[in-house]
Design goal:
Strand content: under 5%
Number of strands: 0
CATH topology: Helix Hairpins
Order of helices and strands: HHH
Number of helices: 3
Radius of gyration: 21 Å
Organism: Legionella steelei
Protein name: Potassium channel domain-containing protein
Distance between the termini: 13 Å
Keywords: Membrane, Transmembrane, Transmembrane helix
Structural class: mainly alpha
Largest sheet: none
CATH architecture: Orthogonal Bundle
CATH class: Mainly Alpha
Helix content: over 70%
Length: about 120
């Protein structure tokens, strides 16, 4: 039997592009939340707030020592939020590929059952 290599449907690329846009939008929103919190609670400049928020969001940890109690509580909550946000954003971006992977496995398993 001849196996045909199936093309990936064109709409998968459109879904990937759309999901990448939503992932970028969610990353920007999460970064802005962190920047606002560091700017408000720790009275950091916007540049220092950006650096601390991006370090936490990327999983590296805070870049500056925190002084206020409110700032420390915010940093802890933001770190927990960032971990969940990272997982959610990666799932959103990769969901079209994951869907295609499982679809291919399902189609291959149906073909093997029909051959028997």
């Amino acid at each position: 039997m001849k196996k045909h290599k199936k093309k990936i449907p064109a709409n998968v690329y459109l879904h990937m592009l759309r999901n990448a846009f939503f992932g970028l939008l969610m990353t920007s929103l999460a970064l802005f939340i962190g920047m606002w919190g560091y700017h408000y609670w720790e009275s950091m400049s916007w540049v220092d707030s950006f650096m601390n928020a991006s370090m936490i969001l990327s999983g590296m940890g805070p870049a500056s020592n925190l002084v206020t109690t409110h700032g420390k509580i915010f940093a802890g909550c933001y770190a927990l939020f960032s971990g969940l946000a990272f997982i959610a954003i990666m799932v959103i971006i990769l969901s079209p590929l994951i869907h295609q992977f499982f679809r291919k496995i399902h189609l291959e398993s149906q073909e093997s059952v029909s051959e028997e």
